[in-house]
Amino acid sequence: MCKIEIPDHPLQLLIQTIDCKLSLYQGDQCVFVHCPLRSLHPGPIKYSQLMASLLIANNGFLNSVKFSLLSSGSQKRINYDWSFNLGDTALELDIFDGQSNQQNIVVLCRRHVSCFDGSGAIKWQIKLESVGMAMCTYRNLLAPDYQSIRLIIGTADEQLLIFNEDKLAWTCSISKPAFILKVCTFTKVFENVITMLAPDGRLCVGWLGTEPTIYKVPDTKMNDYNEKIEYWKSLELKIKESGGGILEKNKKISGISIDFLVGAKEKRTIEHNAANNVPFLNLEIVFGGLENVTKLHVNIKSELATPNRQIVLNVPESKSSSSLLVPFYVGNSKMPKNATIQIAAHCFHSQISGMKSFDLPFDLMFGETTVDRNSKYKITIDTDASVIPVNQLFSEFSSENTQAIGFHIHGYESSSNVSIFAANKSNRYRIQSENASLLQFAAKELVNRIDKIVKNVQIGSTVPFEYISKNVEELQERMSIKKKEQKIIDCRMKEVRAIELLSLDMAKSGNFTSLAQIDMLFDKSYRELLDSMENLAKNDGCIEENKNCLASLFQLASDISKYNKCDTIINENFFTFTDQNLRDRLTWAAGTDRGNEMKLIEKLCEHTTTKNRHEMQKIEEENEGEE
């Protein structure tokens, strides 16, 4: 898509579809639809107001055509003013106004960047060592050569390359590859900021961490080593005379302290990413130990939603502490599995950091609902003390039932029910839910509340291996489906390439007798390819959901093992931050490859700590001594 800006005419949009058809829109009205261009793959398009021409970079060629030919309404074959073979797939196309009303055409391809003048003559070219993904041209009005072309190029290996025409000025690393790059001005504070959009939809706005003009290569100079030796001797003498005073002033800086102040829970939030009719809570985060800190970068990790997860906090010069008010609520994009948040704060200038986690109130995430005794997933908590009424355990809710209470996540009433039952005769609590991922959070909250009321209570439970086994089987099935879908996509891509080669051979020979059949075959193969890619994306979403559920069940197994005075390496992060598959991860942790996945999981959950083994051995020795 590109904008068509003609003097004394309203703004128009020219859109190229996937089959290379051109459509011109003025507002919501379609002005014309032109016949397909002589291309198989669509590419970037750009309108040049100075040349009154449309630049098209389809199929590895850069073409220029007068816009008047397109807007005339004729369906005849288009003759280009000039054409240039790029030798690669074009990704970005931009027009840069130079000196004397000359326009420069900059094209980003996968492996190179080329610059042309208005007649199609190449001016310079940059070879890229890695695959380019995004490009942005901008002008630096403060520089003496402000009319020169300045580029920012994002590559697939998570790098930003900054060029002054064909000369590399600076390079830096980024956290994720940039899919779209812009240099934008939002307010007087945020001027000329780099705006990047990642393939996963994450938007990053900011400046470079370092200034290229400051950190340039120093000029060549000769060192006088005798002078350096005398300087260090005088500095050492000053340190001895001060009795270590200089070292005392430059003592190691401690980390950033983080405290939390919980505000009142409000009834409803109006944030754009919140679910319908959900409450919110303002959490005040207090940062201490901020001497000589002017800017603090704060990152928030939470299953619950918040307006911003990355915040830059400006700290006044005269203060050593600062606070930040952050609202938390249930989001509309993903159902939360727990109410724990993690706050990380870092100052790049002084290199001090701080990190702390905090559990938000239970009623911020859950609301009261009817009890469901037919839920599919169940877990039992045994205690050695009398059962506490559930309405006393969860006193913030208005339930009067002493033996059962039901909850649901705000905004997700149909799929997030959790019911807790109390059995007076057996001193047991039972948790039931239709979502296996919520068992861990509900069990953890219940045990914490019991432990606060009854001191030194003994708690036990059974690891739900059947739920873990079912989830592992579903994950393995999804992974096998993914392999099949990838093979289907490979076959479809080979079909599309073969049809492209056949079309090129027909174009070279000039024989277009079977063009309609080739077009029909290409349309069928291309749509099957798109359907396969869509199925693969859906399957990847299911795999991600299975992994999240498995992580929650692993954490539940870890908690239950601790209740039973055991310890296990399995937890919620066991299979999260790794590129290994589940079996490789389990065989590495268990130290053996015998048995299937469930046998390995059961073996890992049976391991006890060295301390518990010593205690059991000591008890056995005492019993033998008494006998």
TrEMBL record:
- Gene Ontology cellular component? BBSome; membrane
Q: Which residues form the PTHB1 platform domain?
A: 361-460
Q: Which residues form the PTHB1 N-terminal domain?
A: 1-212
Q: Which InterPro entries match?
A: PHTB1_N_dom, PTHB1, PTHB1_pf_dom
> Superkingdom of this entry's organism?
Eukaryota
Please give the biological process terms from Gene Ontology that the record holds: cilium assembly
A Pfam family this protein belongs to? PTHB1_pf
Write the protein's name. Answer: Protein PTHB1
Q: Please spell out the taxonomic lineage of the organism that makes this protein.
A: Eukaryota, Metazoa, Ecdysozoa, Nematoda, Chromadorea
